[in-house]
Q: What sequence folds into this?
């Protein structure tokens, strides 16, 4: 018995303890790329940092407040723009985003390394590469480069200051740009500069665009297909303020099709019984306006649904249940206690908002909703999913409108704004409730005045990212307010508002609790979410922070900072 045991032990010890999968063919490379999309949702971190969220525990204009708990304590830190030090594992936390993005990048790097080997040897599994092999391998290479560019882009958008042009960005820290599989124990990384990060993103992006195709996917919308890749390029060059390229790539995303054929048609669906039905259709491959979908494990929906923080009050009025240039006269009302509340709202949002009492805030489920995967239905356990419509025709058309505004092509910009607005007109005329087709006169009138609710904010983009060619002028200002308002509505609950706040240089004020007031000024150091504690502990340079120098410890005012390091 002892001899048998020793023999078995020796057999075990004689084996190499290596559980890695060795990639030897194109099928395996393509399968690995399926896992090369982050399963962590950046919406929670970003939305809590924006003006799309209010604290229900803070008194409203009439002094009413609630005593609701936060879903997680680190949600409170994010809302106050504090460094998160309470959680290092939650998928909706900064740590989850960081690790999720780099895990996806690692998978892409493993694929690219093997593609390079196949190209050098000219063979796969001992057989010469055929023309079909090369075509498929180029498609795999294109997708891997797009994946690597996209995930580094998301990391830079969250954990870095906004892009500030080629000169200033050379003085700002970027994020480690991983281009090779990690094979050493405890490797040391350098953040480099923000300009270096963007240069590397651009190089990957342009390489990916050369090779990406729709030909080798069973369901292209779960991958970086041609439309999604061009939409990503349009988003990237909007940040860099290279507006001629934004128009080029945004137009290419439609692949010669009329954008009107990708109409956001779910407003007109009559067979939705549950709010989840709306969300499933909105984030489905059937919708022509969806360019790319990313499935995530996320409790984001639960966090803003009856808890302390919600899209409520001014945040709600500036997005879902608020006025707009062509629907200002669409009046609605609801009863809150003994008070009747009246408001303007785009008709398409009627019956599309899920809420846990209007006082606690409404949550629009049209663009995101929890989809639960049961592993044991009797026990009621499983995985919480949220499918992100990451790139859509609606956002892309607004990117093109913004670019044309800065290029001085106001007619072209207005046409895209009107197209976006037309998509939200209910085709059944009996249900339009006074919403009209958008006109230039409406844009100028509505955004020249102050609509309230924080819809109209001061642009500091010329300060954030100085340009010799493009400037905010009085002539284009109403159109800029319009496109940003439409973007805020389109992207609500998805987190992209945080990216717009940073690149436009918007200021944000958060009321928290009974008397705390926090203010985020233009180019505030807290524009960059702090990198995770465990990463700092491993030796990576943390983001710069500033001490508060204000009237009291609860208020942070613009230009009230002293440099610490």
A:
């Amino acid at each position: 018995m002892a001899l048998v045991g020793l023999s078995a032990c020796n057999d075990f010890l004689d084996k190499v303890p290596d559980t890695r999968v060795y990639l030897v063919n194109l099928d395996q490379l393509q399968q690995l790329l399926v896992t090369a999309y982050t399963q962590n949702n950046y919406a929670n971190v970003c939305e809590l940092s924006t003006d799309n969220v209010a604290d229900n525990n803070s008194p409203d204009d009439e002094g009413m407040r609630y005593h609701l708990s936060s879903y997680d304590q680190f949600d409170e830190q994010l809302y106050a723009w504090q460094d998160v030090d309470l959680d290092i594992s939650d998928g909706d936390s900064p740590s989850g985003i960081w690790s999720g993005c780099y895990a996806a990048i690692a998978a892409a790097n493993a694929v690219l390394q093997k593609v390079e080997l196949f190209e050098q040897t000219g063979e796969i599994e001992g057989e010469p590469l055929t023309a079909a092999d090369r075509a498929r391998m180029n498609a795999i290479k294109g997708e891997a480069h797009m994946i690597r560019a996209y995930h580094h882009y998301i990391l830079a958008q969250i954990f870095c200051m906004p892009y500030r042009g080629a000169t200033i960005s050379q003085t700002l820290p970027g994020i480690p740009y991983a281009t090779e599989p990690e094979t050493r124990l405890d490797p040391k990384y350098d953040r480099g500069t923000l300009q270096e990060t963007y240069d590397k993103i651009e190089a990957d992006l342009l390489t990916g665009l050369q090779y990406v195709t729709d030909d080798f996917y069973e369901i292209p919308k779960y991958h970086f297909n041609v439309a999604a890749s061009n939409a990503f390029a349009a988003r990237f060059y909007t940040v860099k303020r290279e507006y001629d390229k934004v128009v080029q790539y945004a137009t290419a995303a439609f692949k010669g099709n009329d954008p009107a054929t990708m109409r956001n048609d779910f407003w007109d669906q009559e067979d939705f019984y549950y709010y989840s039905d709306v969300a499933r259709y909105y984030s489905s491959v059937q919708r022509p306006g969806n360019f790319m979908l990313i499935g995530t494990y996320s409790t984001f929906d639960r966090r803003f649904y009856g808890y302390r923080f919600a899209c409520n009050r001014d945040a709600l009025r500036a997005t879902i249940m608020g006025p707009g240039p062509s629907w200002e006269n669409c009046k609605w009302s609801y009863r809150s206690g003994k008070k009747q509340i009246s408001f303007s709202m785009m008709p398409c949002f009627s019956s599309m908002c899920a809420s846990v009492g209007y006082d606690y805030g409404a949550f629009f489920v049209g663009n995101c909703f929890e989809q639960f995967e049961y592993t044991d239905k009797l026990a009621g356990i499983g995985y919480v999913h949220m499918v992100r419509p990451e790139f859509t025709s609606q956002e892309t058309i607004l990117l093109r409108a913004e670019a044309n505004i800065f290029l001085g092509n106001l007619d072209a910009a207005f046409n895209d704004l009107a197209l976006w607005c037309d998509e939200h007109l209910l085709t059944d005329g009996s249900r339009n409730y006074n919403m009209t087709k958008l006109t230039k006169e409406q844009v100028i009138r509505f955004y020249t005045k102050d609509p309230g609710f924080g819809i109209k904010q001061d642009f500091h983009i010329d300060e954030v990212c100085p340009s010799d060619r493009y400037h905010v002028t009085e002539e284009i200002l109403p159109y800029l307010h319009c496109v940003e308002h439409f973007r805020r509505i389109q992207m609500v609950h998805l987190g992209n508002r945080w990216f717009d706040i940073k690149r436009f240089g918007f200021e944000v004020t958060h009321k928290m609790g009974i008397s705390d007031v926090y203010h985020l000024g233009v180019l505030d150091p807290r524009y960059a979410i702090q990198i995770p504690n465990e990463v700092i502990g491993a030796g990576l340079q943390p983001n710069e922070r500033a001490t508060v120098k204000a009237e009291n410890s609860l208020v942070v005012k613009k230009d009230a900072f002293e440099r610490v390091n």
About this structure: The chain has a mean pLDDT of 88. The CA atoms of residues 1 and 7 lie 10 Å apart. DSSP finds 20 helices and 15 strands in the chain.
